[in-house]
């Protein structure tokens, strides 16, 4: 099956990589001495008028940058900064929480960074995320379609400015909502390559973790997931199945038995944190589900800072039970605000003065965003038919995008199974299962 025609708005970038700016950074506030890896930050203008300025952090591979793959990492939300991937997930630095007291945080090296074997671009997108900005108020009205096109245009222009990486294997990557966008961007790249856009991009595939695929179906599998994890009982699950006809997202409002079954489900899951079912759901850590009118990750900056540095044994609504892991997580998030809002940090990163009217936030909930691509399953099918590689991984304690949803959309691709379901190991210990 042929890929769909490419959108012509990208054609003008063949001849220009203007409106871009980059800085190589050797020292970074919070890290002692010279950085042991190459860090570059910068802006690239995208959009029809190139007036959307996307900020990025680029870490060159610590292995063999001439041969190692290049990854564009997209965080979720949508609207969460590349800082999330850089410092909290796969980047070479982590905040040193043992010494963090609310002042400028320090860093420790992450021995498991993906930059050990790949070069990674962490991007602040859509515009309005992190340090990305626009001078046009209309530019803050983004959508799945516009975001995918913006990131595609960003990467083509970035490669024009970094021609040494044109030959490297290229992968799109992201988790949660970023996984959905990574899939869509891979699709845009494939279309562009077939249409002859320059530069040609050496796309090999994409990597997605607990990724949104179909907004309605992803939500629909939460009931089955809750049953498998013993969050709801057999009786509750059977009642929901028999009365709702496996339609839990938009049930018939006149079906009173289904409404009752879903109310039982909601009561059992009310205080479960979507992102990790074993963690307590505490105040502003709740994470609303994206839909057409409401979106985004909740914001930890709304949590009272005075609670953060009190003893974990002091009585408070969130820490009554000495919830050490949650306490460390919130402290970790606060560290990013302290760091990114610091004047010396912004000067070191090359942030353009006066471009952010409000203080930096890790995840921006103020932009208007339209979820105009409900499903990317067709993109998966087309990309698979074209021979692109897909690595889909899921944490089994994610309630927001349950692993059952990932398994279901993979099965809907009707692929030939070469290896049966099996465990995989790290140092002899079973660490997960998969195909």
From TrEMBL:
Q: Name one Pfam family in it.
A: Peptidase_S10
Which GO molecular function annotations are given, in alphabetical order?
acyltransferase activity, transferring groups other than amino-acyl groups; serine-type carboxypeptidase activity
Lineage top rank: taxon: Eukaryota
Q: Which residues form the signal peptide?
A: 1-18
- Mind listing the UniProt keywords for this protein, alphabetically? Carboxypeptidase, Hydrolase, Protease, Signal
Record GO biological process:
proteolysis; secondary metabolic process
Q: Which family does it belong to?
A: Belongs to the peptidase S10 family.
- Would you tell me the protein name for this molecule? Serine carboxypeptidase
Biological source species: Dorcoceras hygrometricum
Cite the source lineage: Eukaryota, Viridiplantae, Streptophyta, Embryophyta, Tracheophyta
């Amino acid at each position: 099956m042929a890929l769909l025609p490419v959108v012509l708005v990208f054609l003008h970038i063949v001849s220009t990589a203007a409106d871009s700016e980059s800085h190589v950074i050797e020292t970074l506030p919070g890290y002692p001495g010279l950085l042991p890896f190459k860090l570059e930050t910068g802006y690239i203008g995208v959009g029809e008028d190139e007036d959307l300025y996307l900020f990025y952090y680029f870490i060159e591979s610590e292995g063999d940058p001439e041969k190692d793959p290049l990854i564009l990492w997209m965080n979720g939300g949508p609207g969460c900064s590349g800082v999330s991937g850089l410092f909290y997930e796969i980047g070479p630095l982590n905040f040193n929480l043992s010494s963090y007291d609310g002042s400028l945080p320090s860093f420790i090296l992450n021995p498991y960074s993906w930059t050990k074997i790949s070069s990674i671009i962490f991007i602040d997108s859509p515009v309005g995320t992190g340090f990305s900005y626009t001078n046009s108020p209309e530019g803050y009205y983004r959508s799945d379609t516009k975001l995918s096109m913006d990131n595609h245009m960003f990467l083509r222009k970035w490669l024009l400015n970094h021609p040494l990486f044109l030959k490297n294997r290229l992968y799109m990557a992201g988790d949660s909502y970023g996984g959905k966008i990574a899939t869509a961007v891979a699709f845009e790249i494939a279309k562009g390559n077939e249409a002859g856009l320059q530069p040609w991009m050496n796309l090999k595939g994409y990597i997605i973790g607990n990724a949104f695929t179909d907004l309605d179906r992803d939500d629909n599998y939460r009931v089955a997931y809750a049953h498998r994890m013993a969050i709801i009982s057999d009786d509750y699950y059977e009642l929901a199945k028999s009365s709702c006809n496996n339609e839990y997202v938009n049930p018939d409002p006149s079906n009173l038995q289904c409404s009752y079954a879903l109310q039982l489900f909601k009561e059992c899951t009310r205080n479960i944190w979507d992102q990790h079912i074993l963690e307590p759901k505490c105040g502003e850590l709740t994470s609303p589900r994206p839909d057409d009118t409401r979106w985004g990750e909740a914001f930890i900056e709304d949590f009272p800072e005075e609670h953060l540095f009190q003893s974990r044994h002091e009585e408070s609504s969130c820490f009554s039970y000495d919830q050490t892991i949650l306490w460390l997580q919130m402290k970790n998030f606060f560290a990013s605000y302290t760091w990114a809002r610091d004047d010396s940090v912004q000067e070191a990163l090359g942030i353009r003065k006066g471009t952010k009217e409000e203080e930096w936030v890790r995840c921006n909930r103020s932009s208007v965003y339209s979820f105009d691509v409900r499903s990317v399953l067709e993109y998966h099918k087309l990309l698979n038919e074209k021979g692109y590689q897909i690595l889909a991984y899921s944490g089994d304690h994610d309630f927001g995008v349950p692993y059952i949803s990932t398994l279901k959309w993979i099965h809907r691709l009707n692929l030939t199974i070469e290896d049966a379901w099996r465990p995989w190991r790290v140092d002899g210990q079973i660490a997960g299962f998969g195909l």
